[in-house]
Design a protein that fits this description.
About 40% of the residues lie in helices and about 15% in strands. The protein has helices at about 1-15, 50-55, 60-65, 75-90, 110-120, 125-130, 150-165, 180-190, 200-215, 250-260, 285-295, 305-315, 325-340, 345-370; strands at about 20-25, 30-35, 40-45, 70-75, 170-175, 195-200, 220-225, 235-240, 260-275, 315-325, 375-385. It has a 7-stranded mixed beta sheet with strand order 7-6-5-8-9-11-10, sandwiched between helices. Strands 2-1-3-4 form a 4-stranded mixed beta sheet, with helices on one face. It starts with a helix and ends in a 38-residue tail after the last strand. With about 425 residues, it is of the alpha/beta class. The chain folds into 2 domains: about 1-100, Nonspecific Lipid-transfer Protein, Chain A (2-Layer Sandwich); about 110-405, Vaccinia Virus protein VP39 (Rossmann fold, 3-Layer(aba) Sandwich), CATH 3.40.50. Keywords: Lipid metabolism, Methyltransferase, S-adenosyl-L-methionine, Transferase. Pfam families: CMAS, DUF7884.
Length: about 425
């Protein structure tokens, strides 16, 4: 009775402060609506003990309750995330336990490899349900905002290759190559000699299959390898959606490794998610805690300022910085739509618990990027101390109509490209 009285008081307080398209269904059959409009989200408490999750509705508490089956939630993921964030803002203080906490996380090779495999080695078929046909699992690039996901992902790859002014025959290293889309495109379009590395066995196997299918084994090598074990020199280096796994304390060493692998006149590009908190804090109201627990164990987000500082400590100079936050909000929204459209296949492939984790995660990321809780930056860099006379005067070379490199640096050969359909 005490818990039910607390819940009744909490419900009355919320309804006085905010109108939400929310319905709560209690274990005794009672239904409570939080606005006059039809509810877009329904939270069902199957037993009285589940009320404790609502009384402290952090993103971690409610996310955990949903994932573990302590509560049932119905509705589109986008609506679910918006409602839960509104409940958290109305009920909780954005300070103390629910602030943007910067956690101290230990990293070593074994932990990093296990974390990568936990996230990526679900099954390739699982990811195929919501990614584009080329299976690019990072922020797309919407040049006009009207592109479909497949087109925007291909434009992202071309945007990156243009930014690093890739030329025919150059040696390219892609750190965290995923399922191989970038190195395949670089070899097809530019004739680049590419090495792609990943710690995911599933990604490695499928990327190798795709390289063979494209007839590019003479140009592309896919390795199951830690970036710290790579040797040699590369004209160009890309790292897309990987450095979030490195750890804040290890960022200077990470960038120093890139410097050591980069040719003196080479270019590198780091594409990664950042915190918008100057103190490197995670998303508020328990969002970061949920992701640490269920999605990306050992992941850490640095503020852009920290990234640039670490880059300089690694003896790299940043030449160009571009914010793609809006693009990632759109990317995650499209992934969420695909995920929900293939809900039954996802459940079959990943199970009910993983379905719920990714359902919350994808929509939550879209919301976080939309609301400036996290961001995404592409940073082009080279070895510090390089003569300014060797650098281009403007960014114009990045935006040639063909998406090719700066004409003065050599035009790419014509060849078959990755499918955009």
């Amino acid at each position: 009775m005490f818990l039910q009285n607390r819940l009744s008081s909490w419900i009355a307080s919320i309804r006085q402060q905010i109108a939400l398209p929310l319905r709560i269904e209690l274990w005794n059959g009672q239904r409570i609506d939080f606005s006059h409009e039809a509810p877009r989200v329904t939270i069902r408490l199957p037993r009285a003990s589940a009320a404790r999750y609502l009384l402290t509705p952090s993103l971690s508490n409610l996310g955990t309750a949903y994932v573990e089956g302590a509560i049932e939630v119905k509705g589109k993921a986008r609506d679910m995330i918006a409602v839960v964030n509104a409940l958290a803002r109305t009920t909780l203080k954005a300070e103390g336990k629910f602030a943007r906490i910067a956690r101290s996380i230990s990293h070593d090779r074994d932990k990093d490899a296990k974390a990568i495999r936990y996230h990526y080695d679900v099954s390739n078929e699982f990811y195929q349900q919501f990614l584009d046909p080329n299976m690019v699992y990072s922020c797309a690039y919407f040049e006009s905002g009207e592109e479909d996901l497949a087109t925007a992902q291909l434009k992202k790859i071309d945007h990156i290759l243009a930014k690093i002014a890739l030329r025919p025959g150059q040696r390219l290293l892609d750190i965290g190559c995923g399922w191989g889309a970038l190195v395949i495109r670089a070899a097809q379009r530019y004739g680049a000699r590419c090495v792609g590395i990943t710690l995911s066995e599933n990604q490695c196997a499928l990327a190798r299959e795709r390289v063979r299918a494209a007839g590019l084994e003479h140009l592309v090598e896919i390795r199951l390898q830690d970036y710290r074990d790579v040797r040699g020199q590369f004209d160009r280096i890309t790292s897309v959606g990987m450095f979030e796994h490195v750890g804040l304390r290890h960022l200077p060493a990470y960038f120093a490794t890139i410097r050591d692998l980069l040719a003196d006149d080479g270019l590198a590009m780091n594409h990664g998610i950042t915190s918008t908190d100057p103190d490197n804090g995670e998303t508020p109201y328990g969002g970061g805690e949920f992701i640490q627990k269920y999605v990306f164990p050992h992941g850490e987000l640095a503020h852009l300022g920290q990234v640039l500082k670490a880059m300089q400590q690694g003896q790299l100079e940043a030449y160009d910085v571009e914010n793609l936050r809006r693009h990632y909000a759109r990317t995650c929204a499209l992934w969420t739509e695909n995920f929900e459209a293939h809900a039954e296949q996802v459940r079959t492939l990943g199970g009910e618990k993983r379905f719920r984790i990714w359902h919350v995660y994808l929509a939550g990321c879209s919301y976080a990027f939309e609301q400036d809780l996290i961001s995404l930056y592409q940073i082009v860099c080279g070895k510090a101390g390089r003569s300014a006379a060797t650098l281009p005067w403007s960014r114009r070379y990045m935006y040639a109509a063909s998406g090719a490199a700066q004409p003065a640096l050599g035009s790419p050969p014509s060849s078959t490209a990755l499918s955009a359909s």
